[in-house]
Amino acid sequence: MRYLIAATLVTIAAPAVAQEVKVETVTFPSRDGKTQVKGYLFKPAKARAKLPAVVMMHGGAGAYASSAKGKYDASTLSSRHKAWAMLLARNGYAALMVDDFGSIGFPAGFAGTSAGRPAAIDPVDFRPLHAYGALDFLRSRADVIANRVALFGWSHGAITTLAGMADDKPGDMRTLGFTVGVAIYPGCVLNKRFEKDGYKPYNPVRVFMGTADEKVSPKVCETLVERSRAAGNDIAIRMFEGATHSYDTPAQSRQSITANAAAKAATEADVLRFLAAKLKDQ
After folding, report:
1. Residue 193 contacts by C-beta under 8 Å, 6 or more apart in sequence?
2. What is the CATH superfamily name and number for domain 4-279?
3. What confidence tens digit (pLDDT) does each residue in 219-274 have?
């Protein structure tokens, strides 16, 4: 497999108490056997050892800010994606922000409902193949701990996370798969794939969402998680009272809602604890 790494785009100066972060543009083959996927790898600038890693899958609006206006690179990633990538890198992770929509010709993403969206972006049947391509890429790098990689997604990408962590994966996609999964406000219908036998993740999964989510059903996700936990699987959900969809987006429109600000802070703390417990030496 051929992997391409561009020259470092930018070194982002962090506050004095934090690490500087460098960002590389990378490309890697999807597990679909035909797509070259673009991504942005955020790392501590002065890392001296191999790092655990996180593959990040964007939501239905794509990887970039609405203000990108045709310029699609690390500088125009959405504020939420930049913030999480920086947070993870400053805490000692190699964070790979995947732009799989752009890689198949839809960098601006999709607004509104899922009606009319192409089958190629299906979060259950297709996007996990791009996520596993990202995993293969990270496992090939000398600066990443190959068996300590998390799958992390928001909304449409959180559906991809749940689908990607399901134990219906063939061969090495499961046995050499992701260490853990983090799904933030996913839609939990999952193409009705797990209605009969229930949802079973092959490794631990944590789900976060708000009770006031206006785009996906908190009740459906609670039911999915409760049934999976009852069957003995390592999965849990944290529900935030009054928080909306996209509650962790660091924009005034979202953070002016008190419940969103509280949910954002709690989610960041919980995710960092969860990843540290599962991906770092204690």
Report:
1. 124, 163, 166, 168
2. Alpha/Beta hydrolase fold, catalytic domain (3.40.50.1820)
3. 999 999 999 999 999 999 999 999 999 999 999 999 999 999 999 999 999 999 99
